[in-house]
Amino acid sequence: MSATAVTEVPVRAGGGLRDYAVRVGTGLIDTVGEVARAVAPSARRWVVIADDTVGALYGDRVCASFGGADAPLLTFPAGEHNKTRARWEALTDAMVARGLGRDSGVVALGGGVTGDLAGFVAATYLRGVPVVQVPTSIVAMVDSAVGGKTGVDTPAGKNLVGAFHPPAAVIVDPTVIRTLPRRQRAEGLAEAVKHGAIADADYGRGIAHRAEALLSGEVEAIRRMVLRSIEVKASVVSRDERESGLREILNFGHTLGHALEAASGFGLTHGEAVAIGMVLEAQLGELVGHTRQGSAERLVEILQAVELPVRRPPELDPEVVEGFLGADKKVRAGQWRMVFLAELGRVHDAGGRWAHAVERGPVRTVLESS
Amino acid sequence: MSATAVTEVPVRAGGGLRDYAVRVGTGLIDTVGEVARAVAPSARRWVVIADDTVGALYGDRVCASFGGADAPLLTFPAGEHNKTRARWEALTDAMVARGLGRDSGVVALGGGVTGDLAGFVAATYLRGVPVVQVPTSIVAMVDSAVGGKTGVDTPAGKNLVGAFHPPAAVIVDPTVIRTLPRRQRAEGLAEAVKHGAIADADYGRGIAHRAEALLSGEVEAIRRMVLRSIEVKASVVSRDERESGLREILNFGHTLGHALEAASGFGLTHGEAVAIGMVLEAQLGELVGHTRQGSAERLVEILQAVELPVRRPPELDPEVVEGFLGADKKVRAGQWRMVFLAELGRVHDAGGRWAHAVERGPVRTVLESS
Ligand SMILES: NC(=O)c1ccc[n+]([C@@H]2O[C@H](COP(=O)([O-])OP(=O)(O)OC[C@H]3O[C@@H](n4cnc5c(N)ncnc54)[C@H](O)[C@@H]3O)[C@@H](O)[C@H]2O)c1
Ligand SMILES: NC(=O)c1ccc[n+]([C@@H]2O[C@H](COP(=O)([O-])OP(=O)(O)OC[C@H]3O[C@@H](n4cnc5c(N)ncnc54)[C@H](O)[C@@H]3O)[C@@H](O)[C@H]2O)c1
Ligand SMILES: [Zn+2]
Ligand SMILES: [Zn+2]
Question: Where on this chain does NAD(+) bind (chains A, B) (predicted)?
Fold first, then answer.
């Protein structure tokens, strides 16, 4: 399949690092080699890293896009439990064994696990070689492939080790979403709804209207959705590469979301936990007066349309959830901080400060009433 | 001991990263806590990482310099064979186990092994926390602590994994060299002679004149020497943070040096191999006409004064050494490249290009005649 109607979204990497573009278009998976060579001409030899599921589905096409040059596929077993230092080590060693020098580059082909893991391999290989992100899940397209965060988990927690390593390019081909399971699609839509909630109410509502097309992976619906989400994320990231300021707004729903995810022993997926977290944080915002009344209810409608949960599962005790709140690494000096909506489509901004301190009382109220 | 006569050398980190200063002065080891807090105020909790030798000698004083605040010492067994991903992992886990968040910082107290290893821990901990480098060997003072390169070895080779992570500050106390064994002092002087060779002939000659004071660790001689070397390295690094251009001149002696080091099965230390490498590369420069006649001989005199070898050990076969030349990661597209002296104190510069292609013929000639 050849590429049609490519849209480019520019991203400022910040911190003196090279800017890059996200290319979105059907059929782009077959252009990876060509684009990679163009954006990182110093890289003469490439490897394609994928998990075994995505590798089996798309590895051949991506390797073939390097036009006969030796661009081997390196795979690892699929799943978050493989986003580890051990896999990072093995992939690094596989590259060393092939004699790859500084003039090499990495294609990260897959979901967020692959993007983070292969991105970290690239970030640390000989102190850094270029990576081209080719996201194949909705989570990866709308979230993890843009922004430059890479890393792996440790037994003690997620993403504890990593590096900022902005990609040389991001290549998004919405056609690959056809092979993604429906539940994974819903999972990724949680972050898309978040983008609507913090930046574009119409976009948020549009996700609900096109829910079935999105959940069933209709290419044109997916293409438009990921494009708009990437625009939102790219615009936030471009204005703040180091998560000191504006970038915090991308954490909407994530403070309570992470606590719920951890409290569930990861029985809730990240997207499910963030969906519930967004509803609770909107309710909390309404309670403390930062958020316009009714915003939480509008979020609930959108999230239910895309088959995501909106209430704390009754088996998750509020006290237990609160315990995990304290463990979050975004807590500074024991103070809980959260981003609030002003209303659907806009965050509450107290003079350029996006994250606000919250008291225990209202958090408990919201957790208990949910 | 209290600090006297502190000299600050500024370093431009480049790439949008924060600039930093190298502080040189006797007694500064007792100011580490104070300086660390001043240069990285976001870090509220610190750990001090050292190998067990240096930890036993200076760990208490550095931890005490944090003035009673909890600044624990984390140690690992001394030696290059511990500059591994496994040690990086264990140190990271020890930090996680102490609940250290983004508001933490790392002091790297030790030789180059500690600087590289602890620097890499800091570079990757929660995607990067500040590191303060406190070099305690001459190698670390004049070379590894400045410039931002961090990393570890893999079974396949040295420094294959790492990150650029410029320190928040470098603190150099020459008094600690008193406890460094004499052979390690000579080792570090190789890089100091290199700085003289590429940038300051008087400095190079001065090292020979003060050889015995330096080899026996006289504090004032050490202080002046490390200060001048740091000025040279800082000036080169400041003008080019990413090793694309000018920074290459710091590789003088290292192309053949690395090959000799590897060919010896690491029987030659790095400093010894670089000493021989500098002589051979100066001879090579004379042979191909880039280097003024007699420069190699002058280098030989300086290196011999500081008890470093200047000739290829006869048991290292020229062909074997050449084989290791090809394996160097600085070789691009199969072409050997080297930095040449114009004369002692100045590198050969062909219009802003510092590394020059070399042919196999003259390399073999020089290896065989040595
Ligand atoms: N770096 C960031 O900024 C960032 C942001 C959000 C999430 N993340 C990370 O992303 C990860 C989650 O991402 P994810 O949900 O994509 O997980 P994932 O990479 O494990 O993908 C989910 C599953 O879908 C499969 N898959 C992916 N694309 C497919 C396709 N086109 N067809 C068929 N199957 C496909 C994968 O093999 C996997 O089994 C987490 O580790 C999270 O920490 C990172
Ligand atoms: N990052 C860079 O730019 C860079 C540059 C040059 C070298 N390096 C690295 O530096 C390492 C070599 O450094 P090194 O020679 O300092 O090795 P090292 O850190 O192993 O120190 C050598 C020995 O001296 C001991 N020691 C250090 N300071 C002491 C003191 N004050 N008193 C008593 N003993 C002391 C150590 O315990 C160790 O046993 C190599 O791994 C090399 O790759 C890095
Ligand atoms: Zn998320
Ligand atoms: Zn060296």
Answer: 112-116, 136-137, 149, 158
